[in-house]
Amino acid sequence: MSQDSRRARPARGRPSRPAVRRGAPALARQLALRVLERVERAGAYADVLLRALLGRGDLSAADRAFATDLVYGTLRWRGRLDFLLAQVLDRELDKLEPLVANALRLGAYQIVLSQGRTPPEVAVDEAVRCVRAAGAERATGLVNAVLRRLAAEHARIALPDAERDPLGHLTHALSLPAWLAARWLEVYGAGEAVALAHASNGIPPLVVRANRLRADRDGLLWELRGRFPGAEACRFARDGIRLGRRGNPALDPAFLDGRFTVQDEASQLVAALVDPRPGDRVLDVCAAPGGKATALAERLGGDGLVVALDRHARRLDLVSRQARRLGLENLRCAVRDASRPLSDLAAERGFDRVLVDAPCSGLGTLRRNPDARWRIGPTEPARLAETQLAILRQAAAVLVPGGVLVYSTCTLLPEENEATVKAFLAEAPRFRQLGPDEAPDEVRPLVGADGCFRTFPHRHDADGFFAARLELAP
Questions:
Q1: From CA 366, how far away is CA 445, in angstroms rounded?
Q2: Quick one: pLDDT at residue 7?
Q3: Which of 321, 342, 348, 364 fits a disulfide with 410 by CB distance 3.0 to 4.6 angstroms?
Q4: What is the predicted pLDDT for the residue at 117?
Q5: Domain 21-156 fold
Q6: Which pLDDT score is estimated for 246?
Q7: Cβ partners under 8 Å of residue 241, min gap 6
Q8: Comparing C-alpha atoms, which of 457, 369, 377, 448 is closest to residue 192?
Q9: For residues 178, 181, 182 and 186, what is the CA-based torsion angle, rounded to 10 degrees?
């Protein structure tokens, strides 16, 4: 296709506009555009901003779900949408102001990937209206022309082939930033990288953890099947229940009663890897929003103590609220920066178990946080590894002899995982990494010959997690 043939030209005369119902769906699209524009322009977190904006409005449940799909779908497939838009746009997309670029992406998502839910002419019309409502009247002609051209031509635009051009396929068909596509190809090879990217664009399952202090997993599963017909026991996590991929468990009566917590299976298994015993003192140094800290407190059965740390008081309040809802009286919170000394927390006695669920790039959770792929740059993992190692050093200093230190991340890059553990062990000779035969039964199937715990979206339909279990010599 020549450059000239790719240029969008405004249609002659007044474009015809289909009759569409005004009101809530239009407001949902405008809200989605606000989120997408702020994610790109200001680095906002899509889930946090979307939750805040939905909480201020009075959209119906259906329109809230529509807005959510528009935001997450557009972010998941931004790489493919940008590739397709480039074929019908006479300038570089990233040279446009974020509002206009994201209006084009939002319209393109509905045209190309809505599976017929939104007629193309409606998607074009609504994108123009969104831009106009945002005060960018000057851009309405461009948005109209480009999206009309895309609606007419997208089915004939070929995407890069996985066998002939794996990097192009990962980048333009499966919507990974080029640096991450290249890194996954290097680490996993073409076939595995493509499977991982496919899975990372899927809709994740809704998974909950039964509060073993207030509910039996099997009894809770039987109850939840009445409200979530597809509910089933998790494959590995003994307290886990998969509810399907639609719904809002946080509104369920059993959630409000404190009988379960929403938590991915991989995250539940990190708490299983810590394996606290009744009477233990347990430290979670990066605890917010509290899924693992509360899981550890439940596993203690009321006999022992969990101390949950986070450097941000507002985030730590999320942990406290979860603990109150779940009835966990053995969980204490403290505002601390875990990269700095923690010795005062162990003035009388150290901790038997310490969890370092380290701040990381989050690239194993792209299904749940699709904006992470566009926010994280190629130098970020190495920078994060320095922080991760600093936190490990401080956490190790408060562990009792014979105690267990678990290091975990929700990313899939070796520089944040194996390399960080190796660097720590090189400077801490009194620690050893526990082998696969020393792993708790619940997680042993997911622990490799090197002693590392790993989960993958395409293998386990769970978030991508890494963890290593280390022991301090007696």
A1: 24
A2: 35
A3: 364
A4: 87
A5: N-utilizing Substance Protein B Homolog; Chain A (1.10.940)
A6: 87
A7: 207, 208, 209, 210, 217, 220, 221, 224, 231, 232, 233, 234, 260
A8: 457
A9: 170
Angle at 330 between CA 325 and CA 335, to 5 degrees: 85
Whole-model pTM: value is: 0.91
Q: What is the residue type of 147?
A: L
Q: How would CATH label the architecture of 206-262? A: 2-Layer Sandwich (3.30)
The contacts of residue 238 (CB under 8 Å, 6+ apart) are 217, 272, 442
Give the angle 258-443-450 at the CA atoms, nearest 5°: 145
Q: Is 130 among the catalytic positions?
A: no
Name 233's bridge partners: 241
Residue tagged active-site, from 333, 360, 410, 452: 410
Two structure tokens written together for 338:
């875990």
Helix count and strand count (H, E) for the chain: 20, 12
Helix (H) or strand (E) holding 52: helix 46-56
Report helix, strand or coil for 264: coil
The predicted pLDDT at position 40 comes to 94
* Residues 376-431 pLDDT 10s: 999 999 999 999 999 999 999 999 999 999 999 999 999 999 999 999 999 999 99
CA dist 52 and 32 (Å) reads: 12
CATH of region 265-472: 3.40.50.150
403 phi and psi, to 5 degrees?
A: -80, 170
Residues 6+ apart with CB under 8 A from 371: 39, 45, 46, 75
Q: Which residues, in sequence order, are CB contacts of 321 under 8 Å at separation 6+?
A: none
What confidence score (pLDDT) does residue 23 get? 52
The ranges of the chain annotated as CATH 1.10.940.10 are: 21-156
Listed in sequence order, the residues at least 6 apart from 91 whose beta carbon sits closer than 8 Å to its beta carbon are: none
Contacts 24+ apart (CB under 8 A), 310-315: 310/286, 310/335, 310/336, 311/335, 311/336, 311/337, 311/338, 312/288, 315/288, 315/289
Where, residue-wise, is CATH 3.30.70.1170 in the chain? 206-262
pLDDT along the chain (474 residues), means of 10: 35 36 74 96 94 89 93 98 97 94 97 90 96 94 97 96 97 98 97 98 97 97 96 98 93 97 98 97 97 98 95 96 97 96 90 98 97 96 97 98 98 97 98 97 97 98 98 96
CATH 3.40.50.150 region(s) of the chain? Answer: 265-472
Q: Give the model's pLDDT for residue 18.
A: 34
Cβ burial, residue 437 (10 Å; 0-12/13-18/19+):
exposed
Q: Residue with structure tokens 């901003």? A: 49
